[in-house]
Specification:
Helix 2 crosses helix 4 (about 70-80). The protein is α+β, with helices and mostly antiparallel strands and about 300 residues long. The radius of gyration is 22 Å and the shape is elongated. The protein is built from 13 helices and five strands. Strand 4 (about 240-250) and strand 5 form a beta hairpin. The protein has a five-stranded antiparallel β-sheet. The chain has two domains: about 5-95, lambda repressor-like DNA-binding domains (434 Repressor (Amino-terminal Domain), Orthogonal Bundle); about 115-295, Beta-Lactamase.
Length: about 300
């Protein structure tokens, strides 16, 4: 078995163990009787019973000793573990079964953003917008996105990553009103994306760096929580614009499915919309008006 296959099998086993630890017998109609429970959640034999397969067969799947399981078996395991749509999709991706999204080839060159896409970002003068690549890397942005987050152009390309910034940039902990929710969402999103490119060296370097430097990341990554959301709401406390509640959407670029455009908006006539307009005006001022503009976090005005 190849190294990449072992990596996928390990990920599959870790994911299944993490999920069955979250399901109690009473949730699935099983009696909590028998020998003292040494594991949190369901035992392997209980998952096998619920999925109508043998305990030995399920154990081989979880331990990575089976080259592949049929789609019906995976569907039965997903039902037994009460997996949601995102988790079920992740399960299929880990096993490369039909119906899962096609595995993308590992990118060998730096991703490029089309000039027309950059022009689109720049024309969104009242809307923070950026192009995201794999693992939440920031590939392009407009001036309002830089004003909201940070001057991405001042960062090395390897540090232009929203998940990395969430954990390693102290300013992000102050920027996100609900920092833990935002950081955990980043981890779940990247964990989902990782199933399509487990051997990607950039992803491996990012996970390694964050695992070394942040205990929360290391714990949340090991939990194997996954999510695939394309819209939601985030709350910010910005040092210039104040409090903002922004709706976000992620739109896939038709010319490159590995790239997506994230836009943040606020309903008109709301305080958040006014704050965005103020921030846009601030971002267009000459550097002398706010000498800290390269960080997008100038000192408060008196």
């Amino acid at each position: 078995m190849s190294t990449s296959s072992r990596g996928r099998d390990n990920s599959l086993g870790e994911f299944l163990r993490a999920r069955r630890a979250e399901v109690t017998p009473d949730q699935v109609g099983l009696p909590a009787v028998g020998h003292p429970r040494r594991v949190k959640g369901l035992r392997r034999e209980e998952v096998a019973q619920l999925a109508a397969i043998s305990t030995e067969y399920y154990t081989r799947i979880e331990q990575g000793r089976l080259s592949g399981a049929s789609a019906p078996v995976l569907a039965a395991i997903a039902r037994a573990l009460r997996l949601d749509d995102a988790q079920t999709s992740y399960l299929y991706q880990l096993t490369e079964k039909p119906g899962a999204p096609t595995r993308r080839p590992r990118r060998r060159t730096a991703p490029r953003v089309r000039p027309q896409t950059q022009l689109l970002l720049d024309n969104l003068t009242d809307t923070p917008a950026m192009v995201l690549g794999p693992s939440m890397s920031v590939l392009a942005w407009n001036s309002l996105a830089a004003a909201l987050y940070t001057d991405f152009s001042a960062l090395p390309p390897t540090e232009r990553n929203l998940m990395r910034m969430a954990f390693l940039d102290p300013r992000m902990r102050e920027l996100y009103t609900d920092w833990e929710d935002s950081a955990r969402a980043c981890v779940a999103y990247v964990r989902m994306d990782a199933a399509t490119s487990p051997a990607d060296p950039d992803l491996q370097a990012l996970v390694g760096e964050l695992s070394v430097h942040d205990d929360d990341f290391r714990r949340w990554w090991a939990a194997h929580d996954v999510a695939h959301k394309t819209f939601g709401t985030k709350r910010y406390h910005h040092p210039v614009a104040g409090d903002l509640t922004l709706d976000w959407q992620i739109l896939t670029c038709p010319h490159d499915p590995s790239q997506s455009i994230m836009v943040l908006t606020a309903p008109t006539a709301t305080s958040s919309h006014q704050a965005l307009r103020f921030l846009a005006s601030w971002a267009t001022q000459p550097p002398a008006a706010h000498p800290e503009h390269t960080t997008a976090h100038p000192p408060h005005t008196p």
